[in-house]
Design a protein that fits this description.
The complex is a heterodimer of chains A (484) and B (95). Chain A is α+β, with helices and mostly antiparallel strands and 484 residues long. Chain A has helices spanning 62-74, 172-189, 228-247, 293-300, 307-316, 322-329, 332-342, 347-365, 376-387, 393-406, 410-417, 425-438, 440-447, 453-464, 471-483; strands at 4-7, 10-23, 60-61, 82-83, 86-89, 99-102, 112-117, 123-135, 139-141, 148-152, 159-165, 201-210, 220-225, 255-260, 265-268, 281-282, 289-290. In chain A, the strands form four sheets. In chain A, strands 1, 2, 7, 8, 11, 12, 13, 14 and 15 form a nine-stranded mixed sheet that branches. A three-stranded antiparallel sheet of chain A has the order 6-5-16, with no helix packed on it. A two-stranded antiparallel ribbon of chain A has the order 4-17.
Chain lengths: 484, 95
């Protein structure tokens, strides 16, 4: 499944590792009581701690600790009962402290692993190196004034989890699947909203190339990518750039590069290299972060069923295909909706309706599941009407469209429009007799061996009954008549 | 461990401290004295001694996740030399 670049000197393999920054879902900041909500008036959610006024001291938010542990458990990772906050020193206008409080040598979460879902139901295991807690910086706006940069510190001190992967991915698709899986897991856990547009999740992407089986090559890092699509484009561009350099006899410099989505290329940020000497040291304002096994156990008890377990259950207990199960579990809201529809019903039929008709109509109208006009209960009632023979599958699709457009209940639509399936054998028999009488030549051909014409007769009967005849009943009555 | 003049210049630059060329050499000597003094501590046998993280016998204090602060943008930006529309205004930072 890995991506291979065919160079002049042979095949090259791409090696990718990711650092994902995920904003912790919490009311307040990591070390202050100011709000961590998105989108407020500039500097209105800033305490003197976040503005780094002299003498202000950080006090850790217990929710941020819990969320980091919960996420670590969701990543099947080792939780460290002892971790340390360090200062990462650099100067920038939106970093009032002159350092970011982060965790360097002793993070709160150690090694873990997740399973990523690839095309055709294939899966791969990707290693997690670590997860640590850190502060976000403020925000700089460069385009508001001709000669000045505006700084908003609302984000300053917002809690982030940095989730670092092993360099285990070998293609842009695998990197995309990894980001999607991390997003899915944190959303299930309720530890990050996963909103890439608002910057709640963003990724630094490390890319290198090598001949298959060789040692890792020198890597370049592309920072702050906030879309899965851009990330894939950046990986493809960067991997090809590195192959071209090496094959031309050059060497790749280890550096930070910026991906420019407008130009579709990466460019060097070499001028800032010296700024990457962060001189980490333990933050003297903060004692080590310690908790015990009971604290971890208490959080473990609150973990929801995670996507992998849910997928396995949908396959083994509900009989869904790996593909359908995978589609349904990605978002917790979708899985919950599906389970509400499937409860006490044919799960495969429920899955078909959710993935086919519901998703189709949501896509068509650009809606999310959260504003779907058809609630799970309403879709369930429609399925019940199919199952008890009130309407055919074909009529049901029409009814669904109407439900989607008007928000009416399935039963009401069937009643109003007179769509009830006709199982009345007298009426069906009359229609069949009419069709047979009207098509003597086709009947002769059928009796002469053209079995396929059965479909033609079925179509004619359906037409005569406006699609309301029960196909099972039609077959039962018509076949002996045609066979003569 | 020993610092040379170039390292002192680099560290000063990273810390945004201006050090005159003529002061680099003497400062390197001073810092090396301090480092040498610290290195003496390496002579103490610390086998079987738990690393000490604080001189006070206390543990990190945690706070509940409640919004208890903020909401005074004017007081915050008043600490900067210049502000506009609720933002700190600083000389243009060009990437």
């Amino acid at each position: 499944m890995g991506m291979i670049i065919q160079g002049a000197t042979g095949d090259w393999e791409v090696v990718i590792g990711l650092e994902i920054h995920a904003q912790v879902t919490s009311k307040s900041k990591l070390f202050s009581g100011a709000s961590a909500a998105y989108g407020a008036e500039p500097n209105s959610q800033v305490s003197f701690v976040d503005a780094a006024m002299p003498g202000m001291l950080p006090v850790i938010n217990e929710m941020a600790v819990e969320q980091a542990v919960r996420t670590g458990l969701g990543l099947n990772a080792k939780i460290n009962e002892f971790s340390v906050f360090d200062r990462k020193n650099y100067f920038y206008a939106d970093l009032p402290q002159g350092y970011q409080i982060s965790q360097f040598l002793q993070p709160i979460v150690g090694e873990g692993k997740i399973i990523i879902d690839l095309k055709d139901g294939e899966t791969r295991e990707i290693g997690i190196t670590r997860l640590h807690l850190e502060q976000d910086a403020g925000k700089s706006l460069h385009d508001q004034h001709p000669s000045q940069t505006f700084v908003d510190l609302n984000r300053s001190g917002v809690p982030l989890m940095e989730i670092v992967s092993e360099p285990d991915m070998r293609s842009p698709e695998e990197a995309a699947a990894y980001v999607k899986k991390i997003r899915s897991i944190v959303r299930y856990l309720g530890t990050c909203d996963g909103n890439m547009d608002e910057g709640s999740m963003r990724a630094d992407v490390n890319v290198s190339v090598r001949k298959p089986g060789d040692e890792f090559g020198t890597r370049c890092e592309m920072k702050n990518i906030n879309s899965v699509r851009f990330m894939q484009q950046a990986i493809i561009y960067e991997a090809n750039r590195q192959v071209d350099i090496i094959e031309a006899g050059g060497t790749v410099d280890q550096e930070t590069r910026l991906y420019d989505p407008d130009k579709g290329e990466t460019r060097s940020l070499r001028s800032k290299e010296e700024a990457h000497d962060y001189r980490y040291f333990p933050d003297p304002d903060l004692l080590p972060l310690e908790f015990d096994g009971a604290f971890i156990a208490r959080i473990r008890e609150t973990l929801p069923e995670l996507p992998d377990d849910k997928k396995a259950r949908f396959i083994s207990e509900l009989g869904l295909s790996a593909y359908d199960a995978g589609v349904l579990v990605t978002e917790k809201e979708v899985a919950d909706y599906f389970e509400a529809v499937a409860e006490g019903r044919d799960a495969k039929l429920a899955a078909n309706w959710v993935i086919g008709e519901l998703f189709g109509n949501l896509n068509r109208t650009g809606k999310d599941l959260s504003d779907s006009p058809v609630a799970a209960k309403a879709l369930g009632e429609l399925i019940d009407l199919i199952k008890d023979g009130t309407i055919s599958n074909r009529i049901a699709k029409e009814v669904f469209e109407e439900m989607f457009d008007t928000g009416k209940a399935a039963g009401d639509i069937v009643e109003e429009k007179g769509l009830k399936q006709v199982s009345d054998t007298g009426a069906i028999e009359a229609a069949i007799d009419d069709v047979i009488a009207a098509n003597p030549d086709k009947v002769a051909e059928y009796r002469g061996g053209k079995d396929k014409l059965f479909g033609f007769f079925m179509g004619q009967v359906m037409k005569a009954t406006q699609g309301k005849a029960n196909p099972g009943v039609v077959t039962e009555i018509m076949r002996p008549k045609l066979d003569g | 461990m020993s610092l040379d003049k170039a390292t002192v210049a680099k560290v000063a630059n990273l810390a945004r401290i201006k050090v005159e060329e003529k002061d680099l050499e003497p400062m390197a000597a001073e810092l090396n004295n301090i480092l040498g003094w610290i290195e003496q501590l390496g002579e103490v046998n610390t086998d079987d001694v738990e690393p000490m993280t604080s001189v006070a016998q206390m543990s990190l204090r945690w706070r509940a996740d409640e919004v208890t602060d903020g909401g005074y943008a004017e007081d915050v930006v008043a600490n900067g030399p210049n502000h506009e529309d609720g933002y700190f205004a600083v000389p243009k930072v060009i990437e």
